[in-house]
Amino acid sequence: MRTRNHLIRVRLSDAEHAKFLKAVEKAGLTQQSFIRLLISGYTPREKPPPDYYAMMEELRGVGNSLYQIAHAIHRTGAIDLIEYDENIALYRETLRKITRAVVGPERM
After folding, report:
1. What's the pTM?
2. Could you give the CA distance from residue 105 to residue 88 in angstroms, rounded to a whole number?
3. Beta bridge mates, 42
4. How far apart are CA 27 and CA 36, in angstroms?
5. Vertex 44, ends 46 and 8: CA angle to 5°?
């Protein structure tokens, strides 16, 4: 069953429509998603550059390597685990911040 049952029609001038379509394209969203973000009090951001995803994938690979190293170290006990765990937490928080900064919508 459809949960969004209300259709809203809006009339725009040619200039307004062109501006709207350009903003939607820059954000990489559908028109409906773009408007829903605005209604929810968020300003959609432009979609990130293509190399952002490659950088994030590389960062995830580094994190995976760190995890594997940590797993081996936990078995042998040959490292300061508290310090290592703090660094892993910092890595994860940094990854979240990068994602929010580049991809997440901004609060109006």
Report:
1. 0.61
2. 26
3. 107
4. 13
5. 130
Between CA 57 and CA 11 the distance in angstroms is 42
Give the DSSP letter of residue 104.
Answer: S
Q: Is the dihedral of CA 40, 45, 46, 49 positive or negative?
A: negative
Digit-by-digit pLDDT tens for the chain (108 residues) are 778 899 999 999 999 999 999 999 999 999 999 999 999 999 998 888 877 887 788 788 878 878 887 887 888 878 777 777 877 888 888 888 888 777 777 777
CA distance 56 to 50: 11
Cβ distance 31 to 22 under 8 Å? no
Between CA 11 and CA 83 the distance in angstroms is 59
Phi then psi for residue 37, to 5 deg, are -60, -45
Residue entry with tokens 């049952």 = 5
